[in-house]
Amino acid sequence: MKRESDKEKQKRINFAVRPPQGRSVTQVQLNDPKTTPKSEADFRTEEEDIIKECNARLSQRFSLGKRAAISHGKLLEDLGNLGDTAAARRILEGTYEFPEDADPATVLLLKELARMALEMEGENDDGWLTVPEFQDYWKKAKERTSSSYSGRHFGHYKAASKDDFLSALHTGNINLATHRGRPLDRWRKGVTVLLEKEPGNCFIDKLRAILLLEGDLNQFLKEVFARRMMRRMRAASMVPVEQIAAKGKVCVDGAMLKRLYYDGVNITHRNSSCDSVDAANCYDAVNHPLCSLSLRATGVGQSSINTYLRSLQSMEYFLRTGYGVSDNPHGGSEDNPYMGLSQGSCASPPVWTVVSTVIVRAYRHEGYGVEFRTAWSGLIIVIAAVLFVDDTDLFNTSLNPSWTEEQFAVFHNNAIHLWAHLLQATGGNLKQSKCYYYMMIYRFINGRPKLASPTELSHLPVAHIPQHEGPDLPIELKPCDEPTETLGVFQSPSGEDNGHLLRMQEKAYDWLARVNSSNLVPSEVWHSLFTQAIPSVRYGMVVMLNGPRELEDTMMLWYFYCLPKLGVNRNITADWRWLPRRFQGLGLPNFGIEKLSEMIQYVLRHWGSKEGVGMLLRRDYELTQLETGLSGNFLVRDYKKYGFLATKGWVKVLWQYCYYYGVQIEVEGMDIPMPRERDFPVMERFFCLFEQPELEQLNRVRHYKKAYWMSQLLEANGWSIRTNALGRSPGTATKMDFPVQQPTSGDFALWETALRAITSPSLELSPALGKILHDGFDRVVWWKGLSSEYVYRSEEGLRAKKYRVDTNRRSTRSTTALVEDSSSTCDPPRTKYKLVSVHETSSSVQYHSECLYKQFPDELNRSLVDKMQEPPYGSLFQTIHIPQGGDWIVEAIQHGTLMAVHDGSYQPDLDPTVCSAALALGCSTTGRRGVISMAEKTDQHTASNYRGEALGALLHAALMHVCTQDEASTFQPVRVGCDNMGIVKHARDYKLALPDKQKQADVIRSMRAVISRLPMALNYEHVYAHQDESRGAEDLDDMEQLNVIADRIADNQLVHSVAHNEFATSHFPDEGIRILCNGKKVTAGVRQSIYDEWGQRVAQELMKERGIADEHSFNLIAWDAVEDAMASFSTGFSTFVTKFVSHFGGTKKMLGNWQDTNKSCPSCGQPNEDMSHITRCQEEGRAQMRTESAHVVAQWLLDTHMDEELVEGFMDYIIAGGTKQLVEILDDDSEYLDYAKEHDRLGWDCFLEGRISHSLLEIQRDCLHRAGAYMTTKTWSKQFIHHMLCVTHRQWTYRNARTHLKKLEGRTQEDHDRVRNEVRALLAVQPEDLLPTHRHLLQFDAEALGQGSTRDRLLWLNQMESAREAKLAASRRQKQKEKDRRNTSSRRDEEGGLEDRVRSNLSKRQREGTSLANRSSSELNNG
Q1: Distance CA 23, CA 194 (A)
Q2: Which residues does 299 contact at the CB level (< 8 Å), separation at least 6?
Q3: Cα four-point dihedral sign 988, 991, 997, 998
Q4: Over the stretch 1407-1418, which tens digit does the pLDDT of each residue have?
Q5: Would the pTM of this model clear 0.85, i.e. be above it?
Q6: I want to staple 685 with a disulfide (CB 3.0 to 4.6 A). Which of 366, 606, 758, 980 is the partner?
């Protein structure tokens, strides 16, 4: 039922969150929607039209392979369509004479096939399928898988696999058909399912065509091609490192390979290129004759090949669309065969791997690709490209430092042309829209390197890709800071981009948008977040170069918007969001830590590997060593102080993240060997004297002078500076790979000043360097033998030359002329006695000075026991009891008679921090026995019985390596036994990567590394433990007897080591990489260890800042118990704990921050209700609830055997509700007073929130022990913390019952109280406060209203509110009318006054006019 419930839950989540998927085709578009307007789109919607168009287009697609040159002319006549002729055999034998007009690329491929066939000679497969193979395949097959046009679905075969007779019948049927090379008739029919690659895009060329073959045919193809053939290729190391789609690799490996290549280019500043040349229709365009030859070269039988190819060439393809399966198939015939591999066949991926392997090998054979040499150790690997099915990225770099940009561009274009022609020879082609390239050309500006832009490279010829028909097509040159996608990861050569971070944001916010538009509950959102969103967003993060702070800030903003859907206040602080559950945080992933843990896991998985990523990782590490010039392991140095010396790249970002999160990575065996006694790195001295800008200048010149050690600047005498160490001349030719630099005049002047500062004004070092420890890193070494008058010149890859003093030239006190001696061709002496400094020019050789080599004593004959006590294994073999020096063990390995059994021991009652291991040895012929044992002290989280078992396996592997490392003879497999099946599997599958959460990973990783170096096999078997307890010694076989001995010795060793405090070291040999968090070695999952250490640091600071626990109190808390308890809770309950502890719950005080609400406690009325008040509220109901909870807890404590005194104390303490301390409750003479003081130091909140102390666990451990209970302290602590949090949760629930919980009539208690209070307030309303029409509302029975329902009261309240509003509205209207009336009267008064003023003015003017007229008349009369 739970499984069904989980399925339904997942269906709801998937429906809400997952993007829409492509569906079956119900219409097709014939023209490209990207280039065609919607109005001109040409669709086919009828079934017949869809089938007709798709059949025609697929027929063209499956005929693409015929374009290959091998299917034309003389080659077609000689090879046919199956490549099974005598001419094919001669091609693989290397005796075939190619036609003069044969395609050059085809000839290159066929010659490469001959070389492959020679390497795989003798590796042939007859193609016969066995009954166990049939049964094993079908028992694991998923019954619901679609297949078989004939109707024989997977269920038929699964049923048949359960019966031996039916299995043999089916197997015989398959073998009869395949042995003749003739497929069954039903094998020639398949169903092609047409699906949309992009949802909604039905463009016919964008449809995915999946072929459903018959189930038994597909099983045969999987067994012969995917399993047997690929197994042979891996055993012969024939799968190229460039091939990412291979077993043991993941997609991100391809992106990482490109990143490390870019980083190496950016450090060395050598002109390079990266070309994305993706194939079009890679599966569907494979030519069959060439495919047949490629498969035969890998040992596949011709009959198996013919069965596969014939079934495809004459296959009848029935299309399945949205209308169903068509009745009108299309297909090829023997005269006009189809080509390609078909998508849906189990043979397609491995066959394409073989074809692409031929292309890569032929391409490399022509001198293309990059030879990567580690910077100082000199390991070499050639990598030409990164291939993942049809995605291809070509690498090329300038082969000659003197090449001009134009010369390199020509070389680069030739490489693209060759690759394209090789692909065309197999039937494929490059697609212009999917191709582009980067040119990483460096220019130096004031000594600083800068990548040239496409505009600055416009003078170089543009790269073109050839086509089968038509002219070559140009492809785009990308800027080096423009990110492009590789296998889902966005990156650019410069690394100065946010391409992948933006992609992460896009996926994150797309998920959030879908969640926001859904109706998922918080628990479902949490589930989707951790199982869908986080894995999707995190993909590819390991490759990108963004810093930790930028990554944290970016993804924290996403969390901010996610929190409401998770049921959490989005304003909860960042620390609480990603604080681990161990410390009661939300436990959201910190993407910075996620990235760091993935980077470390990636290093652990690939470090020491000879594959592509492992070698480039080591190369970039060594390049960074030389670039920075720091001594030792730079990853443990101060990044803030020294990081500026390194170029931005993946290794530098790893360094940055380690420093940011306090993680140390110890790299074993990677210190650059010191050439002379008292030698030192030059930059270390400069750091004592100069600041950052000057150090950058000096570092440039140091690269130019090719000097890491001081001895590389000195003559052989160890004190005088070499001539070429000064001035502008480059340094001495060296095996070290230093960056290309162009220092300025100021740089050189500062360099000379610096040299005088670290030596003397006269450029003489004092004290001088000591004797020579090894030849150093110069490409040319001059030296003398012990008793030789000659000086020898040794150069890498050349025969040594012999020189003598030139008697024809005059010697001076400082120099002596030398001349090559050709009188003798004898080899130089084996032992070098003196290193000689020589000034060599084109015309002369001048002797300068010399220095003695330090001579090391020859190794004497030592016994095996003597070798075991020497490094690196001496500290591991703590106790050795092997008779006769142990040489008989070596002889037993040589004769195949050695038996070994190892066992471990762990006794936590004796010491929970110690485990031990023992190895018992025996010879089956001589009867000799021997034992080896050791004990290790770590901590109680690391030590375990499983670790002891793993240490035993390491003991045995280390012993086998000591036995075989100095021997040149042949060794036989060794029989090894162990009673732990997990260790047996790890020893057998030592090549597989360890999971991230692997326990005791450090020991297992070391054990696997040692096993991988052994010259013989270890045949591990499981041995049942403690057989002597049920059987007598005489009834036990040899392996069981050795197991009994190992078990007893392991127990004795543990007791002895604890008693005498003698333990082996925890630094194991061949670990390669050791991870330390806060100085503590990581022994299990890296991610969890980093979270624990980082979380503890953040939690301690956070809780101190919030007043939850100071530094001392923090360490008193049993965080392991808290973690176990939090892990047992549901997501909802653990989220409640975080909200409660962080005080970001929905208290009145919190709600008051953004709502206008009463902040008082709804129970007791205390102002500013916060989380600390929840468990302290003294309201009667809350106190009663607390008392009931205390009794529940007390009863449980009594049932789990806690002391009654402490039980009563806890009960009274809980009832007191934080008003009393435990010390006050216990008696003065109580034995638990010390604990009570510690308890009170933590306080009430810690107790009720589940943060209990270590002392309480120790008290309960004693109680359980005295009672003889089976319950462990771990189980008790988990349940006790749950009980305490339940007390808190009940208080919170009770409080919410009054605030939120809907009771009677669907209303909360707070709603009921609010209605009563409002009714009580309205009882004082007077009739005159209402309109006459509403005054009847006051004529009611108050007692009846009080005893009635809240509904009635609420109805009366609403009526009264309406009535009051009506009264107020009427009052407002009345007031408005009065105001309007007053305003009208005022206006009238104003108008009347105006009329009076007008009349007065008119009268005045009339009077004035009359007066003027009279005056004028008088004047006229007078005149």
Answers
A1: 9
A2: 120, 123, 124, 125, 229, 232
A3: positive
A4: 544 443 344 344
A5: yes
A6: 758
